Amino acid sequence: MSQDNSRSTFRCIGKGSCGSVWAQNEFQAIKREDCHPERSVQNDFNMHRRLLEALEASRHLTKMCVPRCHELIQNDNTRWWDEHGPNFPASYSHCKTLISERIPALNATARQHLIQAFCPTERQEFVKSNPSDQDCLVRLYLGRRRHTARSERPSKLNIFSLRNFPLHLDQVELLGLDALPYAKIMAETLAVMHWAAGIDGNDVEFVLASPRCGDDSTTTFDSPSIGRHALWVLDFDCCRSMTPDEHGVEQACGAFFRNDPYYPRPNPANEGDDRLWLEFRRHFIETSRNLLGSDSELPEMLMTRIEAVAMEKRREQVAAASNHA
Ligand SMILES: Nc1ncnc2c1ncn2[C@@H]1O[C@H](COP(=O)(O)OP(=O)(O)O)[C@@H](O)[C@H]1O
Ligand SMILES: [Mg+2]
């Protein structure tokens, strides 16, 4: 695909494996199904809608932020493509396209803080003035620290971008943020996805971003470091239907570990991290029981299964490390 954006009035604000994401203004995000033939914005649309409907009925349980889902445009929708097609770069053909609410990026003060805290000095001036770094969403990884027990050294990644900036648990602490309220929203989100929407949450993303303007029905946070912000969930194209039974529990457990490390993880080796996991676990079960009834065993079954798989993975890691030594 050409990089020539000279004729474009839509600006590319993100890329994933399913598609490229564009914005014309601050309100709408336009996701094109133009990257991977096996990924589908139709499924994204269906799953996104299902979650929003479930959320409507569960607003007393969670105030999580989910973008509004506006419209699915087919590639033969001549009315839409005649009007908007020319706003993409010339080489971009018509394809299935999903229009949803744009998640507002973190503001300049927050970006400045992130740059000062985490950007290598020699790259700071570039990032400050680089337009694409203004589309700043922060992926919240409560299940991972940068310093692994094995290396005890920070990652040497020299790529720094504020687009989808990965904020690990140790960095959450460095910014003076309390991880617990975010962990609770993630637990509520997961419970609503599994038991109210009937979807497995496969590959969804959790990002810190600005709150929706003028909306007091969703949870917002304030901090001296990154100012007012909210936790948003996005990207539903890899989600699949799941049933509320043992098979569904296995599917949900698979999705939990396949995803990037957003959710807290059981970790007996670190007391603080394990406490965060236990709070996540407790809150997931509490929210789930409100949805399924207090006699359902499924929420506890899922959490216990996740703990067992985490233990297995840790054993494998230890074995692999001792084989290397
Ligand atoms: N509604 C949105 N508002 C703002 N940015 C978005 C929105 N949707 C997606 N993005 C950005 O575009 C990136 C790719 O979109 P995503 O839906 O994750 O595509 P994929 O399914 O290909 O991973 C996201 O990681 C995010 O940075
Ligand atoms: Mg994605």
How would you describe what is shown here?
The protein folds into 2 domains: 11-101, Phosphorylase Kinase, domain 1, CATH 3.30.200; 108-324, no CATH class. 40% of the residues lie in helices and 13% in strands. The protein is built from 9 helices and 9 strands. A 5-stranded antiparallel β-sheet has the order 1-2-3-5-4, with helices on one face. It has a 4-stranded mixed β-sheet with strand order 7-6-8-9. α3 runs antiparallel to α4 (121-129). It starts with 10 loop residues before the first strand and ends with a helix. It binds adenosine-5'-diphosphate and magnesium ion (MG).
Topology pattern, helix = H, strand = E? EEEHEHEHHEEHHEEHHH
The stretches of 5 or more residues where confidence is low (pLDDT under 50) are 1-5
**Mean pLDDT rating:** 92
- Number of domains as seen in the coordinates: 2
Give the neighbour order of strands across the main sheet. 1-2-3-5-4
Number of extended strands: 9
How would you classify the helix and strand content by structural class?
alpha+beta
Give me the Rg, rounded: 20 Å
- Small molecules bound: adenosine-5'-diphosphate, magnesium ion
The percentage helix is 40-55%
Give the distance, in angstroms, between the N- and C-terminal Cα atoms: 46 Å
Quick one: overall form? globular
Largest sheet entry: 5 strands, antiparallel
Quaternary structure state of the chains depicted: single chain
Instruction: Give the helix tally.
Output: 9
Beta-sheet strand percentage? 5-15%
Pfam families: DUF3669
Organism: Lophiostoma macrostomum CBS 122681
Domain DUF3669: 231-294
Protein name: DUF3669 domain-containing protein
